[in-house]
Amino acid sequence: MELGFIGLGRMGGNMVRRLSKAGHQCHVHSANQTTREALAKEVGTVSYADIGSLVAALAAPRVVWLMVPAGEVTEQVLTELGQLCTSGDVIIDGGNSHFKESVARAQMLAAKGILMVDCGTSGGVFGLARGYSLMLGGANEAIGRIVPILDTLAPGIDAAARTPARDGGPQAPGEAGWLHCGKPGSGHYVKMIHNGIEYGMMQAMAEGFALFASAGHAVVEEDCRYDLDLAAIAEVWRRGSVVSSWLLDLGADALASNPTLDQYSTEVADSGEGRWTIEAAIDQRTSAQVLAAALFARFSSREKNELGNRFLSALRNKFGGHPSLSSKG
Predict the structure, then answer these.
(1) In whole angstroms, how far apart are CA 77 and each of 83, 93, 119, 191, 192?
(2) Per its UniProt entry, which superkingdom is the organism in (predicted)?
(3) Is the peptide bond before 170 cis (omega within 30 degrees of 0)?
(4) 110 neighbors 142 (Cβ within 8 angstroms)
(5) CATH code matching the domain that covers 191-320, chosen among 1.10.3720.10, 1.10.1040.10, 3.40.50.10380, 1.10.357.10
(6) Per-residue confidence band for 166, with pLDDT thresholds at 50, 70 and 90
(7) Nearest to 308, CA basis, from 181, 212, 199
(8) What's the burial of 290, exposed, middle or buried (CB within 10 Å: 0-12/13-18/19+)?
(9) Between 99-110 and 186-214, two packed helices, what is the crossing angle to 10 degrees?
């Protein structure tokens, strides 16, 4: 199907590649002229120097997908689209916007008859090959219109992961890799919690490997000091262990190529969604002790120098392409 795509960064560009490969007709725009023209040439589509030209090229009712930075940039682009699009058009915000902002933006656009979908998008730089996990909020009508796009971007049904109860039965919600979570804002809310959990999982792994790294010089009796191969431990855990995961895969890869992780920074950034998760926990009076501790650990990483923090930086770099290299690497 035909759609406009605004924002061609680490994830956006690969989403356009995945969509174009499947036969969707993408009209693209990026503030960076070189980026938009190069991608248009690569996938065989048209790039536009401004959003107005892109919207004018789309046949109504239109579908426009945004993958731009959350906050002021998203607000500016959605405001402009609200002035350019017409009743019946669908606008999808695939970035990491705050769910409360998404609710307000959906209401603003609905007053003009424009349907907005908030889409939490997970997959990082590997989404082109693996597909993206998509968590969506919005009206049924809007979701129904974009199903072909969602089916292309998502990984699809993983037969190996199906439980015996589902084998041979109907497809379960979310099984194809995308899920309509509910009304406007719910997609970004679910993605926010996803990122909060991600903080906790990463922190637990980082602390465990930091223990391994200090085992050889721990303040304990000499017979209980160990010189451990961290890369090998990560590798064996990947195979049948209950803590096996994609995050562990990425950590194993980082350790195999750089055992000391000294090419990664000890200062671990936070993108904002971890903070929002804790704010939501406070608002909802729900305990989130592990997630809060993981967030505060990232704050403290800016004052410490240890392998655990390098492990966190390595994971962020591996799955999201985030700039996490030290001045050495």
Answers:
(1) 10, 10, 16, 21, 21
(2) Bacteria
(3) no
(4) no
(5) 1.10.1040.10
(6) low
(7) 212
(8) middle
(9) 160
Q: Identify the DSSP state of 59.
A: P
The predicted model gives 86-115 an average pLDDT of: 97
Task: Say which of 191, 222, 306, 318 is annotated catalytic.
Answer: 191
Treating both helix axes as pointing N-terminal to C-terminal, what angle do 273-283 and 186-214 enclose, rounded to 10 degrees?
Answer: 110
CA nearest to 153, candidates 62, 19, 26, 42: 19
User: Can you give the pLDDT at residue 165?
Assistant: 54
Outline where DSSP puts E strands in 184-248: none
- Give residue-wise pLDDT tens across range 20-33: 999 999 999 999 99
pLDDT at 72 over 70: yes
- Selecting from 3.30.230.10, 3.40.630.40, 3.30.470.30, 3.40.50.720, what CATH number does the domain 2-182 have? 3.40.50.720
pLDDT at 303: 63
Among residues 198, 304, 318, 328, the one annotated as catalytic is: 198
Q: Is the pTM of this model over 0.85?
A: yes
Q: What integer is the mean pLDDT of 135-155?
A: 97
> Domain extents for the chain?
2-182, 191-320
Do residues 267 and 305 touch, judged by C-beta distance below 8 A?
A: no
Q: Which residue has the tokens 């936070």?
A: 270
Structure confidence at residue 294 (pLDDT): 93
Instruction: Note if 304 is an active site residue.
Output: no
Check: CB of residue 269 under 8 Å from CB of residue 316.
Answer: yes
Burial classification of residue 270, based on how many CB atoms lie within 10 Å of its CB (0-12 exposed, 13-18 middle, 19 or more buried): middle
Query: Which two structure tokens, joined as six digits, stand for 65?
Result: 């997908």
